[in-house]
Amino acid sequence: MGSLNSFQDQQGYVEEENNQKKMTETCTMDGAVDWNGRPAIRGRTGSWVAAVLILVNQGLATLAFFGVGVNLVLFLTRVLGQDNAEAANNVSKWTGTVYIFSLLGAFLSDSYWGRYKTCAIFQVIFVIGLTLLSLTTYLFLLKPKGCGDEKSPCGEHSNFEFALFYLSIYLIALGNGGYQPTIATFGADQFDEDDPEEGHSKIAFFSYFYLALNLGSLFSNTILGYFEDKGIWTAGFWASTGSAAMGLILFLCGTPRYRHFKPQGNPLSRFCHVLVAAIRKWKVKITSDGDDLYEEHLKQCRENQSRKILHTRGFKFLDRAAIITSEESNHVDKCAQNPWRLCTVTQVEEVKCVLRLLPIWLCTILYSVVFTQMASLFVEQGAVMKTTVSNFHIPPASMSSFDILSVALFIFIYRRVLDPLVAKLRKRGLTELQRMGIGLVIAIMAMISAGVVECFRLKYARTDCASTDCESPSSLSIFWQVPQYMLIGASEVFMYVGQLEFFNSQAPDGLKSFGSALCMTSISLGNYVSSLLVTIVMRFSSRDDMSGWIPGNLNRGHLDRFYFLLAALTTADLMVYIVCAKWYKYIKFEAKGGDDQNECIRQAELGV
Questions:
Q1: Secondary structure, 3-state, 245-292
Q2: In Å, what is the CA distance from 372 to each residue of 53, 69, 183, 365, 366?
Q3: End-to-end CA gap in the chain
Q4: How many of the other CB atoms lie within 10 Å of CB of 215?
């Protein structure tokens, strides 16, 4: 009998312990759900377990992408026979298209597919594009056999072969472009910013995300870059294909662990509702405090469970869309209002948020013009410098590894040294906008450094080089490019990591992927602006007695003037950016109540 009582007491203790465990398995407070659509349990989903899978996936996908992109300018000149200016323009257009597709991925992610499905689909397209490029290069483009290195350019190609090549690289652009902004946001989704500990981890995630991106490209810029520079293009492209396939498999393996946010519908329709409703009420008077504006408080009235945004001053005309007229007051309590006549404060603030982000975003485009020179003119500049140490040849594209090392170094310096020091002195760290401004300053220094190096390269140029076929058109070592690459890397830590954090934190819940896409799209437009700038400079600098600033033979040009022009333009951009940053108002979300958390605990008690 005593043993029976002891067993019952022990069983009761176990049941009480299990119930206590269920009670403590609380849900996230940001409204995330698990794979089955139920509220996400904090201990079972997300956090660094899921984030690490995403970081490794990002590293492998970046390795694959830069395995193609980092030497594409050399592939176009050596295999397809394009000149320097044409190849630089084509690389800029292709890279720009990659990031234009980020808007498509962000739209599908936020509106219909959700972030997980969008990442998976676009990664499949990415792998297909890489496979087609590898096959096209092996079967058609490397003719005659052994061509494609510095001394053995390939022959002419048919229109069909050109079509296959461009189809493959633009499939790569579509796959990588649609995937990139979504994976960044999806990784951030694995942390609950309403929880202090996870909120801190979410901020750290963006630094590690950008670090993973750069470490992935390190292998491409060194090992793959070396083999591709030697003309072993097929092996390099197949290595990229294998890396992308491994990344896709790894991403799918984490499916049960991920946290998800449900897509919230087409944001364009919500924006149109606000604009139409505001125009219809253009004669209605509004109060200055905004206390009488409409917001949905009943849970059953809300189409989604995103956080409500607090009202802000500015763009007062749009506030008219949320004014409740006497005609609409009868329908408000019944959740039957016409969205073309009455919108919520949250909808109005979504539009305001986008309008406030646009000037900041526009100021980042010129920085991307500076950044894109690493993949084009920096490589061409390095190709006409002394690229040998003893008997070892250094591929010009591999110099971007110094950019990657700089990113890793300055992420460590910022997170471990600079940010704690500034926080101690000012009682708060640098804001995202302040960091982006510092990035612009360092970018100006990078362009000045590149221009000075080019001046010295021209000083030591060989006068007997009538074309770029010279083994070393200049006796200046390629290692003089290290400072400009290091400065670009330092500027990225402040500008691009700051951008990722800024656009993700300032975008409304229904536009998180769009916020990341803004960062990518600024890179896109930077590439297009760079291409346009090169075209304009070549047109105005080319004369009968001059072949322009960026001719096929850089010894006859003035690439230094182009770098100094970029430094001047970026300085002007910095002045405009400072004005826009001072004008910007940060978005404010309403704190969530305890209803959702109580519901989650109830489900945990029921074991669902």
A1: HHHHHHHHHCHHHCCECCCCCCHHHHHHHHHHHHHHCCCCCCCCCCCC
A2: 29, 11, 22, 11, 10
A3: 36
A4: 19
Beta-sheet pairing, 546-547 with 542-543: antiparallel
CA–CA separation, 323 and 328 (whole Å): 9
Angstrom distance (rounded) from CA 473 to CA 462: 5
- Of 561, 553, 562, nearest to 461 by C-alpha is 553
Report for 57-71, 331-345, 546-560: range of highest mean pLDDT: 57-71
The DSSP result for 454-500, as a single string, is HHHHHHTB-TT-SSTTSS-SB-SBGGGGHHHHHHHHHHHHHHHHHHH
Residue type, 433: L
Please provide residue 260's backbone torsions phi and psi, each rounded to the nearest 5 degrees.
-130, 155
Amino acid at 458: L
Cα R_g (the chain), whole angstroms = 27
CA torsion through residues 488, 378, 540, 523, sign? negative
Exposed e or buried b per residue across 477-500, where buried means at least 16 C-beta atoms within 10 angstroms of its C-beta: bbebbbbbbbbbbbbbbbbbbbbb
The pLDDT tens digits for 140-179 are: 888 877 787 777 878 888 889 889 999 999 999 999 989 8
With beta carbons less than 8 A apart as the criterion, state whether 502 and 433 touch: yes
Cis upstream peptide for 181 (omega within 30°): no
Tokens of 513: 């992927």
Amino acid at 69: G
CA distance 608 to 606: 6
CA-based nearest residue to 501, from 437, 435, 441, 442? 435
301 against 445, higher pLDDT: 445
The encoded tokens of residue 295 equal 């917001």
